[in-house]
């Protein structure tokens, strides 16, 4: 399934058009976390270690989101105009989406028997890279919102937060598309476009996300 792995990772970069928006909820994320914890307890060896890391990442995402509202509300040095902006609201919403999509993806790759252990490790590595970037963006955005010592006005803060918001939106869509790409590839058993040609055409894009 090596070629499938390469193809899916590159498809994630090559195109995100036409992918349906899937609603996500905190309840769904909580259920998936419970399922992952159960799988981690039952697993052994490398699989158990990988699942434990996935659970830890999901818990970190969930904790950040829960703390976000409290942190923003407690800040006194930042204007209500910034704290109540669409950028601040959307950052939280995107983190919710990313949390659920990550949980959904990890749950799937560890439950589908058609995915080999080697490919599963590659997929999880890609998830880790994308979620790690989302965490960095979210923490940076939170700092811009809450750090009253930063010398910038409301307009400057909102400009930076708009950039963070756009990055998080992109990461959310990439994780969502990655989930879809894995499922389609597994279902189609590599049928469709010539794999060698596709890999050659998208080699540079693949290397960027793999690094």
TrEMBL record:
| Superkingdom of this protein's organism | Bacteria
Which keywords annotate this record?
Signal
Q: Where in the sequence is the signal peptide annotated?
A: 1-20
Name used for this protein in its record = Conjugal transfer protein TraI
């Amino acid at each position: 399934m090596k070629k499938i792995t390469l193809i899916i990772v590159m498809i994630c970069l090559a195109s995100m058009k036409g992918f349906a928006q899937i609603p996500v909820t905190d309840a769904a994320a909580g259920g998936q976390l419970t399922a992952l914890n159960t799988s981690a307890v039952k697993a052994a060896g490398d699989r158990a270690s990988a699942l434990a890391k996935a659970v830890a990442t999901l818990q970190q995402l969930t904790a950040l989101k829960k703390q976000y509202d409290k942190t923003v509300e407690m800040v006194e040095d930042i204007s209500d105009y910034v704290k109540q902006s669409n950028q601040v609201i959307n950052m939280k919403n995107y983190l919710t989406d990313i949390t659920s999509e990550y949980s959904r993806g990890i749950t799937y790759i560890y439950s589908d028997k058609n995915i080999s252990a080697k490919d599963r490790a590659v997929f999880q590595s890609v998830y880790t890279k994308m979620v790690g970037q989302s965490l960095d963006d979210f923490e940076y955005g939170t700092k811009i919102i809450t750090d009253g010592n930063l010398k910038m006005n409301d307009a400057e803060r909102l400009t930076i937060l708009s950039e963070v918001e756009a990055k998080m939106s992109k990461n959310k869509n990439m994780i969502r598309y990655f989930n879809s790409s894995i499922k389609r590839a597994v279902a189609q058993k590599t049928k469709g476009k010539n794999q060698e040609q596709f890999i050659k055409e998208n080699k540079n894009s693949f290397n960027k996300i793999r690094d």
